[in-house]
Amino acid sequence: MSHAYIDQLEPAQFVQGAYAVQNCQVGQTKAGKPFLKMLLVDKTGRTPGRMWNVPEGLPDRLPTDGFVYLEGQTQPYQGEIQIIVQRIEPHEPTDRELVELLPATKFDIDTMFGEVLTLLNSLEHPAIGALRDRYLEDADLMGAFCKAPAAREVHHARIGGLLEHTRSLMLGAEALLPNYPGVSRDLVLFGLFLHDLGKCLELSWNTGFAYTADGELVGHIARGCTILRQKVAACLDPELGDAAIDVPEPILLALEHILLSHHGQPEFGALKLPATPEAVFVSCLDNLDAKMDLVLEAANRKALGHGAPDRQGDFTQRIWALNTRVYRPDPTAPAE
Q: Alpha-carbon distance 298 to 317, whole Å?
């Protein structure tokens, strides 16, 4: 049986095959019975999965994040197609399956990285330029930067998602910065390039999207700061000769502050509140891009008419990161 892609699922469709699974956990019904809830993923998207009759011991065998083989039936629910799972087991995907199961950016990786490089090469401050060069010559870090997701399951959770998110932010900043002449362009663009680079070590993506031990114990914000300190030290490497440069402490502190504060509020993971014009700009733009990716994926307007006769409304289930249900229709679209 060929793989049933998530973006092509129809109501009341039998589903059988391998899928990536995210955040698989045991819930409890109002009657006190255990059930499994999860997100099921392939390269075309994500959809909720539920298993109401859970055999004893099954949850202990399933990965929280990984791959499963399942059988089930699709069911429309609150504007989405969810999968009611009847049988599920852990699965070791083949290389061919892996390509089908991991979501990936729809944009060309080389083109996006080229756009990021163009903006980075336009930076004017010599110390920031030297720091840029130390990052770009780190082939392992840049290779991971081009492949890593920006998150495990929230925004830009796809191969190449971190690069896509960073490129979007830098292009957005380039368009908006002329409106704010008191803000340092160099600090903003380089701060945006740096702000999530720690996710290259926080996340793993070779066998599904999950947190590494480094991610669980340190996290991308702290790791981003330690990498920054390493690159600052590398700017004084004697082997650089005349190109060696001492990064001024105020620039280092300004960049570290952007990293520490870009989540905006402590309840969202910020270690400091944004307290410079550049940090406020980065934090607001980062929040905008993350939420727009989240809401557009949830709305999924291109598939709105899919299975329309059996859909149960135009709203998604509540999106926890937005604290609301998303209204999917485009009010400006021609009436069918």
A: 9
pLDDT at 98 (0 to 100) = 82
Percent of the chain with pLDDT over 70: 95
- Residue 334: partners with Cβ closer than 8 Å, 6 or more residues away: none
> pTM for the complete prediction?
0.81
The rounded Cα 29 to chain-centroid distance in angstroms is 30
pLDDT confidence tier of residue 305, bands split at 50, 70 and 90: low
